[in-house]
Amino acid sequence: MKPSRFRYYRAGSLQEAMDLLSGPAADGKLLAGGQSLIPLLNLRLARPEALVDLNAIPSLSYIRSEGAEIAIGALTRHREMEFSAVLAEELPLLAEAIPQIGHPAIRNRGTLGGSLAHADPAAELPCVLTALDAHLVAAGPDGERVIRAEDFFVGFYATTLAHQEILKEVRIPLDRRPAGWSFLEFARRHGDFALSEASVLLFTEGDGDRCTSARVVVGGSVERPVRVKGVEKLIQDEISLSTQAAPLADVLRRTEQLAETEIQSAIAGKENPDYLCHLTGVLVRRGLESAIGRWRKT
Description:
Blueprint: E1 7-10, H1 14-22, E2 29-31, H2 37-42, E3 50-53, E4 63-65, E5 69-73, H3 78-82, H4 85-90, H5 92-97, H6 104-109, H7 112-118, H8 124-131, E6 135-140, E7 143-148, H9 149-152, E8 153-155, E9 158-159, E10 166-173, E11 180-186, E12 196-203, E13 213-219, E14 226-227, H10 229-238, H11 245-262, H12 264-267, H13 273-297
Parallel strand pairs: 1-3, 2-3
Antiparallel strand pairs: 4-5, 5-10, 6-7, 6-10, 8-9, 11-12, 12-13, 13-14
Helix pairs in contact: 10-11, 11-13
């Protein structure tokens, strides 16, 4: 199929794009990588009156280390992030997740901002950036505002972005380096949409051997990334480098069960909710096990 008719605008700057959204393209959509939007247009599941193409705005594509944080432009391609030495060194959780996004052809065109604004529950980046406590910078007619990733995603394909706002940048803090980390997802085939996914981060104080805090976020099986705070507290209370094999196995089992229980309400109403709860619990357990393994190797 072919898309329905629409007006096409090619913005040369962020300000021009915002002006278009406030004027002749007020009823339109933004075009970044197009890996989600173009199929929706071709299937006529989306019928915007106008498209505002952002690809002629080079100032929106970059990866910069800025001391206490990493800044990534919204138009940065997944492929550039995949091969970034800065991200591999500073944000290994993000570097681990990016190769699992679709296929190389998709990563060549897909953008960070496009994925986040689309807010697909099965996408990897919303889950990972919520775990990393990233902050998203949105530009609009009234200036810029900064939104925590945890607050940015509000439901099924839904974010807090206003229609005239454009996602400009993602900032990821480096004030706490994880001692262990893991990202796991399950899909029927590599490149398919994930049925469930889990991001796990473990933190310590200095060179201590006890986990002082954790961040565990699940996605895919839920409508938006969800922190499983009961699991985080269990990890904080029970996990250390000196934990022996038998007690550790017990903690891992309890982690799986608690994760299943915590997300039941978020999965309610979906097809096969019991299976999705179980799958998510398994991924959380395996993710924690992998994160502990990395911690022990440091």
